[in-house]
Specification:
- The longest helix has 22 residues.
- This protein has a domain of 52 residues.
- It is 37% helix and 8% strand.
């Protein structure tokens, strides 16, 4: 069965120190380079996800916006 365009699946082995190696094709497609930090999200029922780098900025913005709303609500 052929995967839909833009959809991928790889396997990785977890080493003794809990490290995984991201397959070369995945690193190339998603522009992952040595020294990059990756955001890893986990859900006990759905598993792990490694979103694209742009998710860092989106997540940070959402956190700061939520914090600002809380502060405004506390003032009221």
């Amino acid at each position: 069965m052929k995967a839909p365009k833009g959809k991928y699946a790889w396997t990785a082995t977890v080493g003794e120190k809990g490290q995984i190696v991201i397959p070369k094709q995945a690193r190339e497609i998603f522009d992952i380079r040595p020294g990059d930090n990756l955001l890893i999200l986990g859900d006990e029922k759905k598993g792990l996800a490694i979103p694209p780098k742009s998710a860092f900025a989106e997540l940070a913005a959402a956190i700061f916006e939520a914090g600002e709303r809380e502060q405004e609500e506390e003032k009221e």
